[in-house]
């Protein structure tokens, strides 16, 4: 009986995902882009991570800035960069992707342009929506976070990190685009390296920031579709073009 | 002696403006756009305007939504729409522009694409930067406001209003663009009619919203350059393009 109940639940989930996928396809069908439905995860990071601890120490002037390779003992190793959990894992940069896939079950998508469809935007903060994106021979981590910077006023923060070094990150530009209800919002920037803290990028507000009211204007039935594109860096040369 | 002091002050102001104009031209020279230096004005609107009063009444369920033509006695007349002052003036929509120019000394600029250079971004909230923009046979009012929605956390809100009716406004799309430090932020929307309240557009957050940290990243020496473009409306047809 339990088996049948579980099967029925799984079928319902599949129908729900299929419906959301259809909705997203309807919105972005003209571009023929890959749509990825991303479910939220409540942040379990209640204990401070090494990164946060390093940051706190930095603020007290006792440690250098928050770069993982300056914090860990072996400079060849990086700690787990998953922003959801305080995970004791550490390893070489080359195996971060497989760790994130296998241990934290973060999906990876191929393609230069994809649509990230974050579901259940109404869930209370802190909540994260995370996916990996593989293109141009590299892997990127997209983080959408709902967080209360000002108590009682949750905001949404979206940023993209390269799973690579800061100098590799400088070769790329990422674009996040929201488009609905006769409104369009575009954010373009150089991705940060995953060796920097995603927490500090978000607390600095150096990313796409949405108030709840604007997020609602861009959402459809509780889901927020973000168009993502990655290109090799051209921001330097186009700075004066506007 | 006083005359010479005043002359010297005026010359210093001119040099300062010329320098800011040069800086803006340096940033946007490639596009050959018109750069307009806009100085801030502290909001003197401490007394509630008719619009705010109408809104308060609406919230209590006693009056229809905040449209000036529903609030004034003569439906042919609109009150002063200047967001800076509670001004007792009212007149026909056709003479709003000359009232704003003559009484409130708001500049008007010609051209489909201009650069709005707001100076002294560090001034405390509430502060407004306002200009009129004439193009495609209509006049638009650009309002940039620094306001504390959450106490102690000022934000910047930028929106464009058509000095015309809501149905006329639906024919246009405006774009605001910030571009600096390898970051680019674009907001595109249909302008609201000046018959609606600029205050409610800003309090709804249905406009370009910048946290102080992001505004600092886009500013150069305390000035924020916003590229403005107005086109006839195409948002409907491009909604699925992304």
TrEMBL record, chains A, B:
A GO cellular-component term linked to this record: cytoplasm
Primary role: E3 ubiquitin-protein ligase that mediates ubiquitination and subsequent proteasomal degradation of target proteins. E3 ubiquitin ligases accept ubiquitin from an E2 ubiquitin-conjugating enzyme in the form of a thioester and then directly transfers the ubiquitin to targeted substrates.
Entry domain remark: The SBD domain (substrate-binding domain) mediates the interaction with substrate proteins. It is related to the TRAF family.
Catalytic activity from the UniProt record: S-ubiquitinyl-[E2 ubiquitin-conjugating enzyme]-L-cysteine + [acceptor protein]-L-lysine = [E2 ubiquitin-conjugating enzyme]-L-cysteine + N(6)-ubiquitinyl-[acceptor protein]-L-lysine
Encoding gene, per UniProt annotation: Siah3
Key words of the record: Metal-binding, Ubl conjugation pathway, Zinc, Zinc-finger
UniProt cross-references to Pfam families, sorted A to Z: Sina_TRAF
Full protein name: E3 ubiquitin-protein ligase
EC number: 2.3.2.27
Enzyme superclass (EC): transferase
GO MF annotation: an example: ubiquitin conjugating enzyme binding
Gene Ontology process terms (BP): proteasome-mediated ubiquitin-dependent protein catabolic process; protein ubiquitination
């Amino acid at each position: 009986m339990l088996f049948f109940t579980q099967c029925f639940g799984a079928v319902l989930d599949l129908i729900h995902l299929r419906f959301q996928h259809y909705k997203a396809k309807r919105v972005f069908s003209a571009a023929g882009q890959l749509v990825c439905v991303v479910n939220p995860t409540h942040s379990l990071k209640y204990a401070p991570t090494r990164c946060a601890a390093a940051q706190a120490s930095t603020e007290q002037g006792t440690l250098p800035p928050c770069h993982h390779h300056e914090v860990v003992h072996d400079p060849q190793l990086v700690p787990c960069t998953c922003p959801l959990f305080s995970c004791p894992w550490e390893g070489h940069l080359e195996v971060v992707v497989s760790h994130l896939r296998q241990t934290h079950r973060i999906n990876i998508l191929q393609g230069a342009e994809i649509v990230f469809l974050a579901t259940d935007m109404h869930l209370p903060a802190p909540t994260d929506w995370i996916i990996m994106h593989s293109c141009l021979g590299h892997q990127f981590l997209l983080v959408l976070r709902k967080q209360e910077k000002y108590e009682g006023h949750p905001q949404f923060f979206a940023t993209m990190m390269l799973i690579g070094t800061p100098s590799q990150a400088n070769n790329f530009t990422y674009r996040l685009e929201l488009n609905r209800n006769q409104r369009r919002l575009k954010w373009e920037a150089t991705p940060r390296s995953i060796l920097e803290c995603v927490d500090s990028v978000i607390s600095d507000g150096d990313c796409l920031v949405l108030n709840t009211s604007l997020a609602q204007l861009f959402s459809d039935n509780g889901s927020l579709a973000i168009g993502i594109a990655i290109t090799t860096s051209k921001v330097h040369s186009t700075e004066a073009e506007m």
